[in-house]
């Protein structure tokens, strides 16, 4: 047991709901809170016994983002952490990287910790690429001498040599991310905490980053890796923890934890609704009411047959008339690759201002088109002229595409794993000449 | 806790072990980790300086224009028209020597009080001693101060027959330090409060404005009745400004020494309180900012 790098025991983090929703308070709120506090204190004193210790909240405006989490990580181990949004993954990393304090329990970490909760933390748009490498490196905990020694390597990895003395505000978003990740990838702490940072950047760069991280694991460094990409998790991590509602649901070999995640309904939410319009995504022009995945016969589902068409339905309320609205979806696969973007081209509404009212727009994705696996949908409505994004909701819903082995899908009789962002069933023609080809 | 001790024994002592647990009660000031992160502090100061005049036409000229034009206006209205006594010194030098530390202070307090909120991305994504942010905001003002100081040297040369440099000039660094300490003391309180209460944002310009009039910049502290001098010194900027005039111009406004001593004590108390308050509240910064 002497090579334990990280020991976590009964770790818990409690948030008051108010802390999260009302981002900050004013003095007036504090005064009025203070006036009502004695009453509330009395009430909670009585209700504490009855509400017990279970679950997320206890009716008192309190949420346990993390509860009773215990595990050990050996030195050199690459541990995956999965779970749906809000399961406590990021909270766990934030506690371990000392950004926020736990409410209960403790953790002991041996070695220098580097955390990567976001790429490009502290990048300043006005500064050049060169200046940002130094700034970002220092923020991530590198010494100046260390940054200088690795400077060329970082620039090389990023592939933005030509623009290194240009302010990063002139960079494309791809260049920005590449530079930011290049700095992060050269961090050399004993323990590396990585949040979902691979969901950015293009596919080839993602692959480069995954390889880099694999190297990191092989150098005997301990890594905690949060991801939504089941493929990355199974590839990089030998062991994975599945979190749900702040508690550990499963702790074991990655394929088992991933399997448990996919089989449970944790991984996917096939429908999402906002019953209260005032809290729904959107603005004064339009607000989102619901997003659902539907099959041809109108049923909401989170698992669709690869051969059948699937409809993605968006329900929304137009509150102000006179705007041309373009509902659209962005579909991402489990590697975070944007498979496609589709926008409403219904001729009935194209370039036409919409009157106030309730709308349902459905995009039908044909059968034999999507690849198998998880697809995560972002829903968006915008106006082109002038460009206004009324809302853009990431990770609204997700669904599984299942390719059964019946032989009439694109995989035919092949049972192995098939790469590719899409899996269309194409028409193949094979010509055959029984005579020998003339030479 | 026993279990924890045994785990710690298991973790051999070859690498430092960090313990993360809820903090309770009083926390130690522990300024060592700020020292350990001094390179980050350096880069934050460097960033603040680099971006300060990006995309401006006049650039660092602003650092000169602001105090200089203010001095001109003061000299015309307060010096010439209102005839406010200036302890026998030319009014332009008299007011500019006070404007220098004042602008350093005012700018530092404003930047500092807003610094944690302005850097909330950093606070919610990376660990480092939070003190580095307000400290870097205060240090960032030194460059402007240095540039504006050159103008003062020019003015002192211009009035060389009425201003004599004395040995007291060697104490100037101490008064610059006192200015920064005052700014940091006030800034620590305001920045930490600003994380929770955005009222601070609206308060700061107002506080600075009132404070300006409570400080002997356009007038001399010799106008204040003798019985109130010690009380007046409780405003640390009084000690700073009179200290500057004494160091640079050899000004002998009565009781400068008393003022400086009282002001220094006031700063020490304010700064200690600010550090304690900051340390006590920094654990929730990431959750509420």
Helix-strand layout with pairing:
The complex is a heterodimer of chains A (439) and B (289).
Chain A: E1 4-16, H1 17-21, H2 27-51, E2 62-74, E3 78-82, H3 89-96, E4 104-110, E5 113-116, H4 129-139, H5 144-158, H6 173-185, E6 191-194, H7 203-218, E7 222-226, H8 230-236, E8 239-244, E9 247-253, H9 254-263, E10 271-273, E11 286-294, E12 303-305, E13 310-318, E14 323-324, E15 326-333, E16 338-343, E17 353-354, E18 357-365, E19 373-383, E20 388-402
Parallel strand pairs in A: 3-7, 3-8, 5-6, 6-7, 12-20
Antiparallel strand pairs in A: 1-2, 1-4, 8-9, 10-11, 11-13, 13-18, 14-17, 15-16, 15-19, 19-20
Helix pairs in contact in A: 4-5, 4-6, 5-6
Chain B: H1 2-10, E1 17-20, H2 32-36, H3 38-52, H4 61-81, H5 91-118, H6 120-125, H7 132-139, H8 142-158, H9 172-196, H10 199-213, H11 229-232, H12 236-249, H13 256-281, H14 285-288
Helix pairs in contact in B: 3-7, 4-5, 4-8, 5-7, 5-8, 5-9, 5-10, 5-12, 7-9, 9-10, 9-12, 9-13, 12-13
């Amino acid at each position: 047991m002497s090579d334990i790098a990280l020991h976590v025991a009964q770790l818990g983090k409690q948030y008051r709901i108010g802390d999260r929703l009302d981002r900050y308070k004013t003095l007036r709120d504090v005064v009025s809170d203070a006036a009502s506090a004695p009453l509330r204190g009395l009430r909670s004193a009585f209700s504490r016994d009855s509400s017990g210790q279970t679950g997320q909240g206890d009716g008192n405006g309190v949420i346990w983002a993390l509860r009773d989490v215990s595990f050990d990580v050996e030195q050199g181990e690459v541990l995956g952490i999965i779970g749906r949004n809000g399961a406590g993954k990021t909270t766990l990393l934030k506690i371990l990287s000392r950004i926020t304090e736990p409410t209960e329990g403790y953790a002991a970490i041996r070695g220098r910790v580097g955390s990567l909760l976001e790429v490009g933390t502290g990048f300043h748009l006005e500064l050049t690429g060169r200046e940002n490498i130094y700034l970002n490196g220092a923020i991530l905990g590198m010494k100046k001498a260390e940054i200088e020694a690795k400077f060329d390597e970082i620039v090389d990895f990023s592939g933005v040599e030509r623009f290194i003395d240009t302010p990063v505000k002139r960079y494309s978003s791809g260049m920005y991310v590449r530079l930011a990740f290049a700095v992060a990838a050269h961090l050399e702490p004993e323990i590396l905490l990585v949040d979902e940072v691979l969901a950015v950047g293009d596919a080839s760069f993602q692959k480069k980053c995954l390889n880099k991280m694999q190297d990191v694991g092989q150098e005997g460094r301990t890594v905690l890796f949060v991801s939504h990409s089941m493929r990355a998790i199974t590839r990089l991590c030998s062991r994975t923890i599945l979190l749900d509602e702040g508690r550990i649901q499963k702790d074991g070999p990655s394929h088992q934890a991933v399997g448990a995640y996919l089989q449970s309904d944790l991984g996917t939410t096939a429908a999402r609704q906002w019953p209260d319009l005032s809290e729904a995504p959107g603005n004064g022009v339009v607000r989102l009411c619901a997003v659902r995945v539907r099959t041809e016969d109108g049923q909401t589902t989170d698992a669709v047959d690869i051969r059948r068409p699937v409809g993605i339905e968006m329900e929304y309320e137009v509150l102000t008339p006179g705007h041309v609205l373009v509902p659209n979806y962005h579909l991402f696969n489990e590697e975070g690759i944007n498979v496609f973007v589709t926008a409403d081209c219904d001729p009935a509404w194209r370039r036409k201002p919409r009157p106030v009212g309730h709308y349902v727009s459905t995009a039908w994705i044909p059968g034999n088109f999507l690849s198998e696996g998880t697809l995560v949908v972002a829903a968006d409505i915008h106006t082109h002229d002038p460009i206004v994004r009324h809302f853009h909701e990431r990770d609204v819903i997700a669904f599984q595409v299942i390719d059964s082995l019946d032989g009439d899908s694109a995989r035919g009789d092949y049972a192995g794993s098939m790469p590719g962002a899409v899996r269309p069933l194409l028409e193949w023609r094979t010509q055959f000449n029984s005579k020998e080809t003339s030479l | 806790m026993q279990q924890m001790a045994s785990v710690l024994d298991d973790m051999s002592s070859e690498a430092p072990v960090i313990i993360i647990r809820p903090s309770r009660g009083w926390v130690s000031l522990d300024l060592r980790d700020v020292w350990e992160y001094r390179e980050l502090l350096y880069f934050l100061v460097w960033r603040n300086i680099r971006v300060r005049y990006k995309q401006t036409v006049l650039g660092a000229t602003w650092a000169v224009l602001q105090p200089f034009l203010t001095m001109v206006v003061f000299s015309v209205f307060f010096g010439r028209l209102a005839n406010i006594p200036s302890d026998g010194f030319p009014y332009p030098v008299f007011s500019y020597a006070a404007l220098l530390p004042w602008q350093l202070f005012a700018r530092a307090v404003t930047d500092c009080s807003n610094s944690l909120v302005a850097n909330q991305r950093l606070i919610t994504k990376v660990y480092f001693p939070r003190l580095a942010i307000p400290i870097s905001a205060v240090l960032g003002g030194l460059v402007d101060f240095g540039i504006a100081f050159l103008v003062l040297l020019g003015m002192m040369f211009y009035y060389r027959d009425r201003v004599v440099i004395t040995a007291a000039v060697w104490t100037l660094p101490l008064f610059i330090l006192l200015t920064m300490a005052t700014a940091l003391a006030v800034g620590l309180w305001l920045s930490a409060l600003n994380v929770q209460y955005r009222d601070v944002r609206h308060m700061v310009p107002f506080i600075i404005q009132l404070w300006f009039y409570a400080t002997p910049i356009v007038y001399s502290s010799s106008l204040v009745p003798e019985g109130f001098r010690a009380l007046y010194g409780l405003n640390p900027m009084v000690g700073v400004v009179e200290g500057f005039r004494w160091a640079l111009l050899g000004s002998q406004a009565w009781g400068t020494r008393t003022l400086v001593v009282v002001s220094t004590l006031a700063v020490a108390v304010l700064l200690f309180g600010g550090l304690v308050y900051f340390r006590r509240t920094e654990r929730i910064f990431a959750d509420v900012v």
